[in-house]
């Protein structure tokens, strides 16, 4: 068995409005960062998983994302697996 470090990036799909991102953008502009054109907020999930095969880990994490970690209707996700 090996320990795999997994990072899952979850972001709203481009067609979904991001009110939190708009709030951050407005705040940045108010602080004088006028050159910032857009801000979108996402989340990073880090997992440690014990398994013997990276392919199994990726498959299981994809399943976790579809069932719990992301909302596939409005969010996209990217899974990165490292040994």
Descriptive notes:
With 83 residues, the protein is of the alpha+beta class. 34% of the residues lie in helices and 35% in strands. A three-stranded antiparallel beta sheet has the order 2-1-3, covered by helices on one side. The longest helix is centred in the last third of the chain and has 16 residues, at 54-69. The radius of gyration is 16 Å and the shape is elongated. The mean pLDDT is 98.
The fraction of residues in strands falls at 25-35%
| Proportion of residues in helical segments | 25-40%
Computed CA radius of gyration, to the nearest angstrom: 16 Å
Tell how many strands the DSSP assignment holds. 3
The shape, in one word, is elongated
Q: Which runs of at least 5 residues are low in confidence (pLDDT < 50)?
A: none
**Which structural category do the helix and sheet elements fall into?**
alpha+beta
What is the assigned CATH homologous superfamily? Phosphoribosylformylglycinamidine synthase subunit PurS
Largest sheet entry: 3 strands, antiparallel
Instruction: Return the CATH topology.
Output: Mth169, Chain: A
**CATH class category:** Alpha Beta
Given the structure, what is the number of helices?
2
Oligomer: single chain
Order of helices and strands: EHEHE
- Mean pLDDT over the full residue set: 98
CATH architecture: 2-Layer Sandwich
Number of domains: 1
The main sheet orders its strands as 2-1-3
Distance between the termini: 11 Å
SSE inventory with pairings:
Layout lengths: L1 E11 L6 H12 L11 E10 L2 H16 L5 E8 L1
Antiparallel strand pairs: 1-2, 1-3
């Amino acid at each position: 068995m090996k320990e795999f470090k997994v990072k899952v990036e979850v972001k709203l799909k481009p067609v979904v409005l991001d009110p939190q991102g708009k709030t951050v953008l407005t705040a940045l502009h108010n602080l004088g960062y006028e050159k910032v054109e857009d801000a979108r907020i996402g989340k990073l999930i880090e997992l440690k998983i014990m398994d013997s095969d990276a392919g199994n880990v990726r498959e299981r994490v994809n399943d976790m994302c579809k069932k719990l970690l992301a909302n596939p209707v409005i969010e996209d996700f990217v899974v990165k697996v490292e040994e």
